[in-house]
Amino acid sequence: MFKKLLYLGCLLILLFSALYPLQDKLGGNTEEGQLAVAKGVHKRVLTLDAHVDIEVSFITPELYQNKHHEKLFSYPDMEKGGMDAVFFAVYTAQGPRSQDDFERAYKQAVEKYQAIHSAIKEKYSTKITIAYHSAEVHKLYNEGNKIAIIGMENGYPLGKDLANVKRFYDLGCRYITLCHNGHNQLCDSHQNGDGPPSEHNGVSVFGEKVIAEMNRLGIIVDISHLSKKSMLDVVKLSKAPIIASHSCCRTLCDVSRNLYDDQLLALKENGGVIHLVAINDYVKPDPPVKRRSLEHLRKELGFPQEEMKFLQIYVNSSDAKKKSYQERAAKINQQYPAANVKDFVDQIEYAIKLIGIDHVGISSDFYESPYCIEGWKDVGETFNITLELIRRGYSEADIEKIWSGNLLRVWREVEKTAASLKMINLPNSR
């Protein structure tokens, strides 16, 4: 009898010893326990930001004179925040569509690609490495490197020359956001200023050719900034999974850049991923009184109301003017709090509940501080996202998917699609 009781007691000890580590792995019940677990998870998982606008030191002559740009993304802060990899976005503003304008936009984009390569080669060659294929990312990460990948925001610089898709691919482009704010030659945008709401009724004929060429080469199609019709067209046209590199859920925040539930479900059906973007205006809607207060402040300081124009003027403003805006805007935000990390993770959770853990990722869209959420105002605060996910009970495996696994899976599938299409196009292939 005594032996049986001893045996039973040993079994109970083994059972409880197995359960306690499991509880600790899930974050425990204390803030200290969750913090410790989150630090371990954040150190082990590969963190990948799907969309960051390149900082001014990367940018070409049009902004060299700007000495006041607030750098939200830097190598030291990558180290501080535990960010391992990032898609740098080569952004070109939408403009007119004459041949001369297309050539000018193409030249600007090429200069920015070259600036990324030069900056990494000259300043960060021992610290950051550019990845050109999905298989390289984990290899570089395991070797202790920080990783840069290049995307392109706005297909406008492609002009009407399909061969430019390959030219940008050769410069390192691995996703293209088909348009930005304003319709272009590829598709309709989610907004078009004072112009007509639709020009092509979705994706244009040339846009269809560009998508096919992106599939053939292995470039991910990015549908952030597209109109709903354009986005749904892309789902039908693309032979490979697609992404939204920097969008949120429209059910939670009704702005035109965010995606409706049926768009999210279409993205899931395609096998794609939405990367929830940590920009205040897209995470949580501001109350009208706050919007009016900020509009009045901008008017008083001589800033334009339209967001992109405001950003362009703000970037090049004097330190004194920027400080005045920041201090007074901070008081407005204190009265009507901006979105924070919890609000942002609410967006993540909504998408997960609707379309599943395999179709959700993260992006910051870091560029200027007026747009950032509380708790993730620069890359140095990246850990706060992992900590909030741990607090909500997400496992390490789930967090790894959200931070990088899902995007890398899409990239692999895009490359496989490209390889199969090239095989199909080979002469006399069987």
Order of helices and strands: HHEHEHEHEHEHEHEHEHHHHHEHH
- Per CATH, the class of the largest domain reads Alpha Beta
Label the CATH architecture of the largest domain: Alpha-Beta Barrel
CATH third-tier fold name of the largest domain: TIM Barrel
**Rg of Cα set:** 23 Å
Mean pLDDT: 87
Shape: globular
| CATH H level, superfamily name of the largest domain | Metal-dependent hydrolases
In total, how many domains does the architecture comprise?
Answer: 2
Strand content: 5-15%
Number of helices: 16
Distance between the termini: 73 Å
Summarize the biggest pleated sheet.
Answer: 6 strands, parallel
Can you describe this structure?
- This protein has 430 residues and is of the alpha/beta class.
- It has two domains: 329 residues, Metal-dependent hydrolases (TIM Barrel); 51 residues.
- It is built from 16 helices and nine strands.
- The strands form two sheets. Strands 1, 2, 3, 4, 5 and 6 form a six-stranded parallel sheet that branches.
- It is globular, with a radius of gyration of 23 Å.
- 43% of the residues are buried.
- About 7% of the residues have low confidence.
Protein topology:
Layout: H1 2-25, H2 31-44, E1 48-53, H3 75-81, E2 85-91, H4 99-123, E3 128-130, H5 134-142, E4 146-153, H6 163-170, E5 173-177, H7 205-217, E6 220-222, H8 228-237, E7 243-247, H9 261-270, E8 273-277, H10 280-283, H11 288-301, H12 307-315, H13 319-335, H14 341-355, E9 360-363, H15 383-391, H16 396-425
Parallel strand pairs: 1-2, 2-4, 3-4, 4-5, 5-6, 7-8, 8-9
